[in-house]
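Page 47, continued from p. 46.
Same chain as before, 160 aa.
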Amino acid sequence: MIDLLFIPLSSLRKLKPVTRVTEPSRPKSSLLQHELPVERLAEHKLEWSLKMKRIDVQSFALLTALAVLLSISSASRAQNASESLYKSKCAACHSADGSGSAMGKKLGAHDFQTAEVQKISDAELSDIITNGKNKMPAYGKSLKADDIKGLVAYIRTLKK
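Result:
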C-alpha cells in the first residue's frame, strides 16, 4: 500500500481524490480513515507539523527554564555549604563577616574584607588554606580540594 502522507506536493495535483482509505492498524481518529481528498490530507499533515513545532518550542522553553532553576539552586547549595564550612573552620579567627575576631587579630589573622586580601590570587589563597601560614593551621589533610575551592569563592564574597 502506498503511504499517502509522503507523496510530493507536485504530484498531488495529478492524483484523483481518494474516496476512502482504511487501515485497521491505525486508531479511528486517524486522518486516513476519513473520506478526504489527497490535497486535504497534505493540508492536515502541514497543520499537524506546525502544531508539533509549537509543542517542541514549548517543550524546549520548559526544559530550558527547568535547567536554569536547577543550576541556580545548585549554586546556592554550594554557596551555603561553603558558608557553613567557613563558619565552622574559619570564623573563630576571621569572624563571620571576615573582618577578624578579637582572638584572630591577636594571632595576626587577616581581614578578608580588605583590598590587600582580595587581590591575592585564588591559587595563593588555596595554598594558604591547604598548607597554613604563620599561626594558621593547614587544612589540606582535613578538607577536600573542592571544599578549599569553595572557601576561596566564599572569601571573595566578603569584600567591602
